[in-house]
Amino acid sequence: MASPLRIALLTYRGNPHSGGQGVYVRYLSRALVELGHEVEVFSGQPYPALDEGVAFTPVPSLDLYRADDPFRRPLLAEFRDWIDVLEYAAMCTAAFPEPLTFSLRIARLMRARQREFDVVHDNQGFGYGLLDVVPRMPVVATIHHPITIDRRLDLVHAPWYRQLSLRRWYAFTHMQSRVARRIPKLIAAAESGRRDAISELRLAPEKIDVVQNGVDVELFRPLPATPRVPGRIITTTSADVPIKGLVYLIEALAKLRTERDATLVVVGKPRAGGAVQQAIDRFGLRAHVTFETGIESLRLVELYASAEAAVIPSLYEGFSLPAAEAMACEVPIVATTGGALPEVVGTEGAAGLLVPPKDAGALAVAIGHVLDNHALRTRMGTAGRARVIERFTWTRTAAATTERYREVLERC
Predict the structure, then answer these.
(1) Span 271-329, pLDDT tens digits
(2) C-alpha closest to that of 26 among 298, 221, 215, 300
(3) 3-state SS record for the chain
């Protein structure tokens, strides 16, 4: 039997309410510990929610993007070293410094603690500081999807006067591309993400493997006692950004409401005055779209249980935990074919229906078909949960990730 490993799991921000990366760190670390490994998570703010048995070391930043005071001006007494100065200076010039400055702090920590770990696992940070770690310790890194895709889509949808600042904000993607090529082993969550990472980041194909993400199937489960609300649709999006395609779902809802009583619950926070709010006002949907923000997991499960369909309108997804979580709750899916969504949802018509991205009309037709057919909803919901249990559990994810750790260790 192979000996347990000592794993340093890195994430430059870990809050499970701020995106899929926090969910990934929490559940992967828990599953690795359940397999007998020792895991210590190193994270910047917002800090992760971790389970018993997982060690944690905070890696404090200046926390410049905190939810209650974004782009804040720190007090002089808050600056501890040159990395803090670099972080603030970068923010003041419209850059996003967290992946870089977190990695520099990690490099300093790992120089002092390198004998305490068998392997370092970076969670989509790819900061230059990691290049100080690679010669000293075995390193594996997860790339959920290339952020260069977000950059390209944001620039396409941005007005001309925002494009310069967006290019500056996404400047860190050049660093990530360079660092990713120096990591011994990379993990992608889907085959589409692997292909895109190879193309976008110019990676050697043999360096990157697919390890699919998991779902907590004990938490995300059907709630038979919770009645479905007729016509209720649910979507989960951590950010009001073009890549999530929420504007197209708003337009699809407007089309649906010309024929039936349909409502939408959005688990996420809209940007004040942003494209989503403008679309809601343009179509007169304020009374028919509600937002749930910062909710606990049990509340999310209840919302899934009350919905007749879950919609993923994204232009691109590296995996889509919301799709898999909804499937685990036996909610039928309507999703686009963007990125990894067909790999998660599976065969068309089994657990869900697939439509092209950016097509509000096709979304409306598919959602209407699901809402109008109780037997179809039941069949797809049952098939969806079965697919998740078979393919997308965190135990499977942790076991496959451990295999990648050992591959790297064998080369050292």
Answers:
(1) 888 889 999 999 999 999 999 988 888 999 999 999 999 999 999 999 999 999 999 99
(2) 215
(3) CCCCCEEEEEECCCCCCCCHHHHHHHHHHHHHHHCCCEEEEEECCCCCCCCCCCEEEECCCCCCCCCCCCCCCCCHHHCCCHHHHHHHHHHHCCCCCHHHHHHHHHHHHHHHHHHHCCEEEEECCCCCCHHHHCCCCCEEEEECCCHHHHHHHHHHHCCHHHHHHHHHHCCHHHHHHHHHCCCCEEEECCHHHHHHHHHHHCCCHHHEEECCCCECCCCCCCCCCCCCCCCEEEEECCCCCHHHCHHHHHHHHHHHCCCCCCEEEEECCCCCCCHHHHHHHHCCCCCCEEEECCCCHHHHHHHHHHCCEEEECCCCCCCCHHHHHHHHCCCCEEEECCCCHHHHHCCECCCEEEECCCCHHHHHHHHHHHHCCHHHHHHHHHHHHHHHHHHCEHHHHHHHHHHHHHHHHHHC
Bridge partners of 210, per DSSP, are 188
Nearest to 269 by CA among 1, 67, 12, 113: 67
Q: Is the dihedral of CA 119, 125, 129, 132 positive or negative?
A: positive
Type of residue at 363: L
Amino acid at 350: A
Domains and CATH numbers, the chain: 6-214+393-411 (3.40.50.2000), 232-391 (3.40.50.2000)
Of 387, 317, 314, the closest CA to residue 347 belongs to 387
Give tens-digit pLDDT for 46-67: 999 999 999 999 999 999 998 8
pTM more than 0.85:
yes
Cα 42 from chain centroid?
18
C-alpha neighbours within 13 Å on the C-beta side of residue 325: 25
Q: Work out the burial of residue 138: count CB atoms within 10 Å of its CB; fewer than 13 is exposed, 13-18 middle, 19 or more buried.
A: buried
90 backbone dihedrals φ, ψ, rounded to 5°: -65, -45
Q: How far apart are CA 412 and CA 408, in angstroms?
A: 7
**What percent of the chain is modeled with pLDDT above 90?**
89
Question: Which residues fall within 8 angstroms of residue 197, CB to CB, at 6 or more apart?
Answer: 143, 145, 146, 180, 186, 188, 203, 208
